[in-house]
Amino acid sequence: MSQEKTFEQLQVELVEALTKDEALKAAFIANPNEVASRVLGVQIPSFIKLMPVEVPANTLLFPLPARREEGELTDLDLERVAGGKSIKGKSMLS
Question: What gap in Å lies between CA 64 and CA 74, rounded to an integer?
Fold first, then answer.
């Protein structure tokens, strides 16, 4: 029985492989989705965009979410709707 790996486990596995092989790291920077799929043995959906960033030791990285268009739902809103709730938290099933 195989156990699925978490995102964090996959990330550690990929970073370890990239730090051991400079050619693989260069290939990953050029084509991250293809290389990550090959190294990890998983298919990364085309709608997922991997963005490699080399972060110096004395730097903190602060990812900011993309600006949403007017009326666009947040991930939390989408989860609520998918779970049968309205955006305001009331059930859509009653």
Answer: 14
Could you tell me where the beta strands, DSSP code E, fall in 1-94?
none
* High-pLDDT (> 70) share of the chain, %: 85
Which residues, 6+ apart, have CB-to-CB distance to 5 below 8 Å? 13
Check residue 60 and give its pLDDT. Answer: 93
In eight-state DSSP terms, residue 85 is B
Cα–Cα distance for residue pair 86/62, rounded to 1 Å = 31
30: which 2 tokens? 């050029």
3-state helix, strand, coil in the chain (%, to 5): 45, 0, 55
- Which of residues 84 and 23 earns the better pLDDT score? 23
